[in-house]
Amino acid sequence: MDGISFSVAAGEFFTLLGPNGAGKTTTISILTTTLNPTSGVARIAGYDIRRAASAVRQNIGIIFQQPSLDFNLTAEENVRFHAVLYGLYPFRPTFSTMPRAYKQQVSELAALLGLEKDMGQAVKKFSGGMRRKLEIIRSLLHKPGVLFLDEPTAGLDPVSRRTLWEYLRQVRRERGTTIFLTTHYLDEAEEADQTCIINHGRIVAQGSPESVKAQLTETYLLIDAEDRNKLRDELRRLKVEFTEAASFKISLRGSDVQRIIKAIETPLSLVKTHDPSLEDAYLEIIKES
What we know:
Blueprint: E1 13-17, H1 24-31, E2 43-44, E3 47-48, H2 53-58, E4 60-63, H3 75-85, H4 100-112, H5 128-140, E5 146-150, H6 158-175, E6 178-182, E7 194-199, E8 202-207, H7 209-216, E9 220-224, H8 228-237, E10 243-244, E11 248-251, H9 257-263, E12 270-274, H10 278-288
Parallel strand pairs: 1-6, 1-7, 4-5, 5-6
Antiparallel strand pairs: 2-3, 7-8, 9-11, 9-12, 10-11
Helix pairs in contact: 3-5, 7-10
């Protein structure tokens, strides 16, 4: 890592993006106290990650990129073991003998992610997507203030992926949970409050998704007509700047789409607005860096 510095406000949705090997997992490992930093200072929920590692771990939930389940235990036993380690509930040998609050909490989370009928099954029988769902249940059990998600939807089908994000939005809204996400699904980062893009261990862009997109991409209008000569002459007469290739491209920085379209009298065969995505900006940043 090379001088990475950022801050995340309580309740904020923060995304850390970058290609494979950029340093995302290393950063999360340091912040979650599973890897000791060689230098620098970091605080989570007000606690120093070096001096108060135990307090940090009590205030965070983690879903790592690699599975961290015991495949020889049942799904519920994995969750129960986690609950006991965190001191949430006293140990009981069976699910039926656990406190009512625990049983209700596990049942609600399992139903949310579609695992209510599978909690008594051994994890080794689970598919990759089912294991990911179980890790999510386990990480939310102690109601963490900060939730670290390292590629959380990898292996999930589109329906499960959408269900997960609907629940995470609910968690943020109701509990004020801070979410720290790394993902290769850049559409998941579009709703973030803040995005940090790293490459080769250093920050190459930072800000809201909208500001990152505005810095490196452009919104433009594509138009065309059967009589291209007439359209070209009209654009020049209107003093509209454009480039011409397969169609006419008009940059919309500071321009009004409706005003431009209304001013053109030549019958148009194509009208298309390109609104750049965070993925467009990300690819441009990685290419440049």
